[in-house]
Design goal:
Blueprint: H1 12-17, H2 27-33, H3 38-45, H4 49-66, H5 78-88, H6 103-115, H7 123-138, H8 143-156, H9 164-187, H10 192-199, H11 212-216, H12 225-239, H13 253-265, H14 268-272, H15 278-347, H16 353-357, H17 362-375, H18 379-388, H19 391-404, E1 408-409, H20 414-422, H21 426-432, H22 449-455, H23 468-485, E2 488-489, H24 506-520, H25 527-547, E3 554-561, E4 564-571, H26 581-593, E5 597-598, H27 599-610, H28 629-642, H29 659-669, H30 672-687, H31 692-695, E6 700-709, E7 718-719, E8 727-736, E9 741-748, H32 759-762, E10 772-775, H33 782-791, E11 794-797, E12 808-809, E13 825-826, H34 829-834, H35 836-848, H36 853-861, H37 868-890, H38 892-915, H39 928-962, H40 969-972, E14 983-984, H41 995-998, H42 1008-1013
Parallel strand pairs: 5-14, 6-10, 10-11, 12-13
Antiparallel strand pairs: 1-2, 3-4, 6-8, 7-8, 8-9
Helix pairs in contact: 3-4, 4-5, 4-6, 7-8, 7-9, 8-9, 9-15, 12-15, 12-19, 13-15, 15-17, 15-18, 15-19, 18-23, 19-23, 22-23, 24-35, 25-37, 26-39, 27-28, 27-39, 28-29, 28-39, 30-39, 33-37, 36-37
C-alpha cells in the first residue's frame, strides 16, 4: 500500500495562484493591507531613490496581503502600484527595473526585521505542525481546505509562506499520521472473538448473494409487523459485534463518521482490500455507528407501523360508522317518537304516563336502545376497538422492542416503564391468577380512560377480567406517544435518544454562558432584555393604534363568538403590484438576449467560473482524481436532478461517460457532504455578482416545502393527504433574497415542517447570514416565535387569518385605545424570569450545535403538555408574535416584503418541477440516503441554473446600458433569475447509425453484469 503522503492534491492552477495576486485587490483590501501609516512611509522614504522607495512600499503591502514576497515586485497589479505610489508622491512608472535590482532582497530582509516576519523553520515550523495536527485530529477537513487554512494561519502569524510543495507535503504528511493514529486506536478496541466476527462481515454469505456487510448497512423498507421484527433482528445482529463495550471517546466524531461512511458506501470487497490496521478500524467504526443507526431505524419502523395502523383504524371506524348510520338513524328516530309520545302524556294533567307505554312497541324500543348503545360510541372508543383487532401485528414488535432496545424514561414515564417491565410477566400472571384478582396486579396508570375501559370491560368475552389484547395495543400506543415526546428514549441515539442530555450541562454551561450571552446579545439576568422587548411591543401597539384611522387595509369588526360579540382585526389582501412599461420592456429585452443552453453545458460552464465540481472528493478521502471526472460528475448530477437515471447518460464512445465511470462516480463522489460543499461554492459566488445586490443583501430568507410522491414504500416517506395521493416526502428548502438556496432538509411526509425550520438556519455552510425568515402560516406557533426571539432572528410568517390570533400585552395598565379589547391576553413575565438561565442554556445549546431544534421541540411541546421550559419559551413567543402582528397590521411594505420572498420561493419550486421531470416527477429511491442525495443534487442543479441566469442577466443589462438604454435600479430589482424556457432540460435526440447497424448487423446482446448494473 502506497503512502498517502506522496499524493499531491493541488491542481496546476492552484499552484500557479499560490503566493500571487490571483485577482486585483478591492478597495477594502487596498485600504486594509496597502495603506502606509506614518512609520511605514518614513521607512520607505529612507530608501535611496524613488524606485527603491516605491519598491519598498509595494513589497510591504504585498507581504501583508499575500504572506510572502513576489519574486519580481513589478508583477504586482497596476492598481496596487498606483495606490502605493500615490501615498509616496511618485509616479507608478518609477517601479520599472526594480525587479532586476539586488536591492529588493535587502528590502525584504529589512521588512522582516522591522515588522516581525519569520521564515517557516524552528519554532515557527513546530507551531504550524502542532496547529495542523490539532486541526486534523479534531476535524475531518479535506487537504485543500487544510492547505488554505494553514496559509491563512501563517499570514496571521507573520510567517512567510513556504513553497507550495513544502506546505502541500506537510499537510498530507500530518493527515497521514493522524489517520494512522485513528486506525491503530480503533483497531485495538475489539478482542479476538470480535475481530473474527467483524472480519466475517466481508465475505459473501453462503445462503445469499451479498456479504453480511451489504445486508446490515441496508436500511429497512418493510413497514409491517414482520418488517419491524426484521429491523429489530438487524439491530440485535449489529449489537452482538460488541460495539457497546468499546471506548471510542478518544476518537473525534467526525473521524468516526468518515470511516463509517466509507464502509457504508463502497463494496465489501473494497473494504476487504484495505491494509491493516485501516481495514479493522473501518469495520469498528462501521459497527459502532451502524449499531445506533439500526436502533434508530428499528424504532422508526415501529413508529411508522403504529401510525399506519392508527390511521387505518380511524378510516375503518369512519367507514363502519357510515355503514351503520342508517340503522342508527332508524333506532334514534324510533326513540324520538317514543319520547314525544311519553312527553305528551306527561304534559297532560289528567294523563297517565304509564298509559303512554301501552302505545309503544316495547320490544322494538328495547331493540332500538340496544342498537343505539352498540353504534353510538365515542370516536376514540371505536378507533381503539379497530386498533385492538390488530393485536397480532403489534404484539411481537412491542415485546421485542421493549426487550432488546434498552429503553429508558424520564420520571413522568414511570408508569409506562413499569408496564414495559411487566410485559414479559403478563401471560404468567393471566395463567396463575384468578380473573377477579388481576385488577391490582396489571399496571394501567399509563393508559388513558378509553384504553382502561377496554382493558377492564364490563361486557363481552372478557367481562369482569382483563382484555390482554387491549392492554398490549394500548401500551404500544402509549409507547409511541412517549417516544415522540422523548419521555421514553434509547440513550445515545440521534433521533430517538434523549435531547435533554445534549443541552449544555454543568461545567460546560458555566464555561459557555458568557460567550453564549455575548453571541446572542442577551444579558445573564433577564431584566434588561425583557424591558427592551416589552418596550418594543408597547411601541408597536401604539404605532398601530395611532395609524388605524388612516390605514385603509385594516379595520376592527365585531363578530359573534360563542354567543358573545368580540372585536376582530380585519386585514385586506395585498393588491397586485402594477408593472411599469419600462419593466416589461426590460424583461423582454433581457429575455431576448439570454442564450439557449443545454443543461449539461450549463453545469460545465458554471464549473468553469466557480470550480464547484472540484469539491466532490472520493469517499475514501483519497486525493487523486480520475481522468474526465468533471464530465462524469456533471452527467451524474443531470441524471439525478432530472430523475432519469444514470443509464440515460451512458455513452461508451465519449470520455467520462462510460457506464462504469458514471456508476463509479455516483457511488464514490455523490453524497451529502460533497453536495453541501459544492452548493456553498455556488451560493457564495452568487453573492458576489453586482446584480444580486438589487435583489437582496442576504439578510432575508424563506423556508417552504416541496412535496414529492414516493410510490415505493420506504422508511423515510409517509402519507400526507394534503399533498400526496399515497405516500411522499418533503424537501424543505431555504431560499435567500438573492435567489440562492442555501440549505435544505428532507422530511418524512407525516412530520410538521416547522419542527425543522431552525435546523437549516443554524447549520448551513455558506457565507450568508440571514436574520429574518419568512414562511407560510403553518409554522407560526408560539414556540417557534419564542425560539426565534431567543436566538436573535426575526420570524416573519405570512398569515392567512391574522385577525383570529390573540394579542398579548406585557403592561396591564397600558392604554392602547381601540386595541384594548384586542390585547386582552397577559404575558406571564414571572414564568420567563424564573426560567431565564434555562432559556439561555437552551438557546446556547442550539446556537453551538449540541442539540437540534427538531430534537428538542417535541420535548418542549410535550404533545400539548408543555414542559416548564416550554411554557417559558411560549411566553416569549407570545410577546414576539404580538409585536410581529402589530407591525404586520401596520405596514403594507412589511407584508409585501414577506409576500415577495415567498412568491420567489414558489417560482423556484416551479423550476425544480421543470428539472425533475423524469418518472412522472415521483421519487423512486429505495433508501433514505438515496433520496437525500438525489434531492440534494436537484438543489445543486437548481442553484447552478440560478447562477447561470444571474450572470447572463448581468451581461444583458451591461449590453443594454452600453447601447445607451436607461435601466433603472427599481426595474432591476424586479427581474428574476428563475426563468427556464431557454434551458433545454430534456436534451437532444440523435438520428444516426453506425455503418455496421446501417448495413443490417444486429447489436450485441447485453451481458448479465450490464443488465444488473442498469
Amino acid at each position: 500500500m502506497g503512502r498517502v503522503g506522496q499524493v499531491a492534491f493541488l491542481t496546476d492552477e492552484q499552484r500557479r495562484n499560490y503566493g500571487t495576486f490571483a485577482a486585483v485587490p478591492d478597495d477594502g483590501q487596498l485600504a486594509g493591507y496597502f495603506l502606509l501609516d506614518r512609520d511605514a512611509r518614513r521607512r520607505a522614504m529612507a530608501c535611496r531613490g524613488a524606485r527603491s522607495q516605491l519598491g519598498y512600499g509595494v513589497q510591504l503591502g504585498t507581504v501583508r496581503f499575500l504572506g510572502t514576497f513576489l519574486d519580481n515586485p513589478e508583477h504586482a497589479p497596476a492598481e496596487v502600484v498606483a495606490y502605493v505610489a500615490d501615498q509616496l508622491g511618485h509616479s507608478p512608472s518609477v517601479l520599472a527595473g526594480y525587479g532586476a535590482e539586488r536591492t529588493r532582497w535587502d528590502h525584504q530582509n529589512a521588512i522582516k526585521d522591522a515588522y516581525g516576519y519569520n521564515d517557516l523553520k524552528g519554532d515557527a515550523w513546530w507551531k504550524l505542525a502542532r496547529w495542523l495536527w490539532d486541526r486534523c485530529w479534531s476535524g475531518n477537513e479535506r487537504p485543500l481546505a487544510l492547505f488554505d487554512l494553514a496559509t491563512l494561519h501563517l499570514v496571521e502569524n507573520k510567517v512567510l509562506l513556504p513553497g507550495a510543495t513544502v506546505l502541500e507535503r506537510m499537510v498530507t504528511s500530518i493527515r497521514e499520521h493522524t489517520n494512522r493514529k485513528t486506525w491503530r486506536t480503533l483497531a485495538a478496541q475489539p478482542d479476538a472473538a470480535q475481530r473474527t466476527a467483524l472480519t466475517a462481515l466481508l465475505p459473501v454469505e453462503d445462503s445469499r448473494r451479498t456479504s453480511k456487510l451489504d445486508r446490515l448497512r441496508r436500511s429497512p423498507r418493510d413497514i409491517t409487523g414482520p418488517g419491524a421484527g426484521k429491523a429489530i433482528d438487524r439491530y440485535i445482529e449489529l449489537n452482538k459485534l460488541g460495539a457497546h463495550a468499546w471506548d471510542l471517546s478518544a476518537i473525534p466524531a467526525g473521524r468516526l463518521h468518515a470511516l463509517s461512511r466509507h464502509a457504508s458506501s463502497v463494496r465489501a470487497r473494497a473494504v476487504a482490500d484495505l491494509a491493516e490496521p485501516r481495514r479493522m478500524a473501518t469495520l469498528v467504526a462501521f459497527a459502532a455507528s451502524m449499531r445506533n443507526r439500526a436502533a434508530d431505524e428499528a424504532i422508526e419502523v415501529f413508529d411508522m407501523l403504529m401510525s399506519d395502523l392508527a390511521r387505518t383504524s380511524a378510516n375503518l371506524a369512519a367507514k363502519q360508522r357510515m355503514r351503520t348510520l342508517g340503522d342508527l338513524d332508524s333506532s334514534a328516530l324510533m326513540l324520538r317518537e317514543a319520547w314525544i309520545t311519553l312527553s305528551h302524556a306527561a304534559a297532560d294533567p289528567e294523563g297517565d304516563v304509564r298509559g303512554g307505554f301501552d302505545l309503544l312497541d316495547i320490544t322494538a324500543m328495547h331493540q332500538a336502545a340496544r342498537t343505539v348503545g352498540e353504534l353510538a360510541r365515542p370516536e376514540a372508543e371505536t378507533i381503539a376497538a379497530e386498533l385492538t383487532a390488530r393485536y397480532r401485528t403489534i404484539n411481537q414488535p412491542l415485546r421485542r422492542l421493549a426487550k432488546h432496545l434498552g429503553l429508558e424514561g424520564v420520571e413522568e414515564a414511570g408508569p409506562l416503564m413499569e408496564a414495559l417491565a411487566f410485559l414479559p410477566k403478563l401471560e404468567r400472571t393471566l395463567a396463575k391468577s384468578r380473573q377477579s384478582e388481576l385488577f391490582p396486579s396489571v399496571p394501567v396508570k399509563h393508559l388513558g380512560p378509553t384504553w382502561q375501559t377496554r382493558v377492564f370491560p364490563t361486557e363481552g368475552e372478557h367481562a369482569g377480567g382483563v382484555d390482554k389484547h387491549a392492554w398490549i395495543v394500548g401500551t404500544a400506543e402509549a409507547l409511541r406517544g412517549a417516544l415522540r415526546r422523548h419521555d421514553v428514549f434509547v440513550p445515545g441515539l440521534d433521533k430517538w435518544g434523549d435531547p435533554r442530555k445534549a443541552l449544555l450541562q454543568d461545567d460546560a454551561w458555566e464555561n459557555a454562558r458568557t460567550r453564549v450571552c455575548r453571541s446572542l446579545g442577551l444579558s445573564e439576568k433577564p431584566g434588561g432584555d425583557l424591558d427592551r422587548w416589552c418596550g418594543e411591543l408597547d411601541d408597536d401597539y401604539r404605532r398601530l393604534a395611532a395609524g388605524l384611522a388612516d390605514n385603509p387595509h385594516v379595520r376592527i369588526e365585531q363578530r359573534t363568538e360563542n354567543g358573545k360579540l368580540r372585536d376582530h382585526l380585519v386585514l385586506t389582501g395585498l393588491d397586485k403590484l402594477t408593472e411599469p412599461v419600462s419593466l416589461k420592456d426590460l424583461r423582454e429585452a433581457v429575455d431576448a438576449r439570454i442564450p439557449t443552453v443545454d443543461l449539461p453545458e450549463l453545469l460545465l460552464e458554471v464549473h468553469a467560473w466557480t470550480g464547484f465540481l472540484h469539491h466532490f472528493h472520493h469517499v475514501s478521502e483519497a486525493s487523486s482524481r480520475a481522468e474526465h471526472l468533471v464530465v462524469s460528475l456533471a452527467a451524474v448530477l443531470v441524471a439525478e436532478a432530472c430523475n432519469i437515471g444514470i443509464q440515460s447518460m451512458v455513452s461508451e464512445d465519449e470520455p467520462g461517460r462510460s457506464r462504469d465511470q458514471l456508476f463509479w462516480a455516483e457511488q464514490n463522489y455523490l453524497r451529502a457532504e460533497t453536495l453541501r460543499l459544492a452548493n456553498a461554492v455556488l451560493v457564495d459566488y452568487q453573492a458576489t455578482l453586482p446584480i444580486v445586490g438589487h435583489w437582496g443583501g442576504g439578510e432575508l430568507a424563506s423556508a417552504d416545502g416541496l412535496r414529492f410522491a414516493t410510490p415505493l414504500r420506504v422508511l423515510n416517506s409517509g402519507p400526507n393527504p394534503k399533498y400526496f395521493a399515497a405516500r411522499g416526502i418533503t424537501l424543505y428548502n431555504y431560499l435567500s433574497d438573492q435567489y440562492s438556496g442555501f440549505n435544505h432538509i428532507v422530511i418524512p411526509g407525516t412530520r410538521r415542517d416547522s419542527l425543522y425550520l431552525l435546523d437549516g438556519i443554524l447549520d448551513q455552510p455558506t457565507s450568508l447570514n440571514p436574520t429574518e425568515i419568512a414562511t407560510d402560516t403553518a409554522g407560526a406557533s408560539e414556540m417557534i416565535f419564542g425560539l426565534f426571539r431567543l436566538l436573535g432572528y426575526q420570524f416573519s410568517p405570512r398569515l392567512a387569518d391574522a385577525g383570529h390570533t390573540l394579542l398579548y400585552r406585557a403592561d396591564p395598565a397600558a392604554d392602547y385605545g381601540p386595541l384594548n379589547p384586542l390585547t386582552a391576553g397577559r404575558i406571564r413575565m414571572r414564568t420567563i424570569t424564573e426560567n431565564w438561565d434555562d432559556l439561555l442554556r437552551l438557546a446556547g445549546s442550539l446556537r453551538e450545535g449540541t442539540v437540534r431544534a427538531s430534537q428538542i421541540l417535541p420535548v418542549l411541546a410535550g404533545q400539548g403538555r408543555p414542559s416548564p421550559l416550554g411554557r417559558a419559551v411560549m411566553q416569549i413567543g407570545r410577546l414576539d408574535r404580538s409585536a410581529f402582528l402589530a407591525r404586520y397590521y401596520h405596514s403594507e411594505l412589511f407584508r409585501r416584503k414577506i409576500n415577495t420572498q415567498l412568491n420567489r420561493q414558489e417560482s423556484r419550486h416551479e423550476l425544480a418541477r421543470r428539472i425533475f421531470y423524469g418518472q412522472k416527477g415521483e421519487l423512486r429511491q429505495k433508501y433514505k440516503e438515496g433520496q437525500e442525495d438525489q434531492l440534494s443534487a436537484l438543489g445543486l442543479v437548481l442553484n447552478a441554473c440560478v447562477l447561470w441566469n444571474s450572470v447572463y442577466i448581468q451581461e444583458a443589462v451591461n449590453q443594454l446600458r452600453a447601447e445607451g438604454h436607461h435601466v433603472s435600479d427599481a426595474d432591476l430589482a424586479r427581474l428574476s433569475p428563475l426563468g427556464h424556457d431557454h434551458i433545454r432540460m430534456i436534451g437532444r435526440y440523435h438520428f444516426r447509425l453506425s455503418p455496421e447497424l446501417a448495413a443490417g448487423k444486429l447489436r450485441p446482446l447485453r451481458t448479465m453484469r450490464e443488465a444488473v448494473v442498469s
